[in-house]
Amino acid sequence: MLNPTFCRRVLLMLTISELDRPSVPMLMKTLGWPRRTVQDVIKALAGMGVEVSFIEDGVRHNDGYYQVSDWGSVNQQWVALHREQLQQALL
User: Which of 36, 64, 71, 73 could make an SS bond with 57 (beta carbons 3.0 to 4.6 A apart)?
Assistant: First the structure.
């Protein structure tokens, strides 16, 4: 059985990597998660050795998108191959 916390984190990383210029609203829409969940999971990724950067790209201070620059010890290909299983663990 997969840990839902781990699944949520790696699914967010994969989604950030796959989307073009993923903002919090875009991630909320794509994943179907509340804003606070998306924001909390992004903050928690550093604890896994994952590097996520916010790229400011706009007039307002918070305009921009996220980018995973280092997956740490997580294998991106494994996550992509097991996406469905990871999603099932969240149901």
Answer: 64
Q: What is the pTM of this model?
A: 0.92
> How far is residue 43's CA from residue 37's CA, in Å, rounded to a whole number?
10
Residue 61 amino acid letter? H
Identify the segments of the chain with pLDDT beneath 70: 61
In this structure, are strands 64-70 and 51-56 parallel, antiparallel, or unpaired? Answer: antiparallel
- Burial zone of 48 (CB within 10 Å; 0-12 exposed, 13-18 middle, 19+ buried): middle
If we measure between CA atoms, which residue out of 61, 56, 23 comes closest to residue 42? 23
